[in-house]
Write a structure and sequence with these properties.
It is built from three helices and no strands. The chain is an all-alpha fold and 180 residues long. The chain folds into two domains: 46 residues; 132 residues. The radius of gyration is 67 Å and the shape is rod-shaped. The protein starts with 6 loop residues before the first helix and ends with a helix. The relative contact order is 0.02.
Length: 180
Amino acid sequence: RRLYFDTHALVCLLEENGFTTQQSEVIVSALVKIMNTNLDMIYKDMVTKVQQEIALQQVMSHIAGVKKDMIILEKSEFSALRSENEKIKLELQQIQKQVMDEITKVRADNKLNLNLEKSRVKELHAQQDRALTQTDRKIDTEVADLKTMLESHKLDNIKYLAGSVFTCLTVALGFYRLWI
């Protein structure tokens, strides 16, 4: 074992400071034992360069093995995900086609219903127009009948009035003759 300080210089230093030679040697011996014990404990925790290289090689080979496993797993997972993605795409296309078919069907139904409703409304308007035309004709006929009847009554009234005037005139003339 190498010591990284001069033990003889330490003994001399201790002697200069009042220690005896025997005390100085005992102190230096105790320091050397403590340092050796500490170094033994430190060396137990340490590895040699060869051991370190071996451990590094083992770790690197283990990492390489894990890396290969990860690549294989990644490829298998990737292919599984790709196939799953293809399945989902096919299902999505089928669903999209079904939705488009349903939309087309609903549009056709709505157009049919709308056309039926339009024809019903047109028919209703036509019926209303016919009824209105018939009502207008009836009203016109009734108005014409009323005008004819009014003219007829007017003529009758004029006849009766003329007859009454002539009768009154005749009576008045009769009285006039009688009084004259």
